[in-house]
Structure prediction request, 114 residues.
Amino acid sequence: MPAKLSTHVLDLTTGRPAVGMVIQLLRTGPEPALIKTVTTNADGRTDGPLLDETTMAAGSYELVFHVSEYFSGHGVDCPFLGQVPIRFNLTDATAGYHVPLLVTPWAYSTYRGS
Prediction:
């Protein structure tokens, strides 16, 4: 598997990919920095990996999923969740990491996928 970081989002209220969700990728730690901001496509995925073999580096990262903005844009009230941050560590810069988000306006779940 090539070195990469990817994500996708599933809207569990519809059972379909979350189209149009804004996601920010940040490097955390002593010098925090916003790496990029992306929006999910028709498959609930980003167009290409968030990090690839040329940009992967071991360290601490955070994905921030703009959940309430997504649900509001689809006519669903989301007063409980605003932004969902997921902090994780990349320990092997040559490995593939996949961080999916399963979400409703009231709850979310994630895991390290393949």
Notes: The chain has a mean pLDDT of 96. The beta strands are 4-6, 9-11, 16-17, 22-27, 33-39, 59-66, 83-90, 96-98, 101-103, 108-110. Residues 25 and 63 are 5 Å apart (CA to CA).
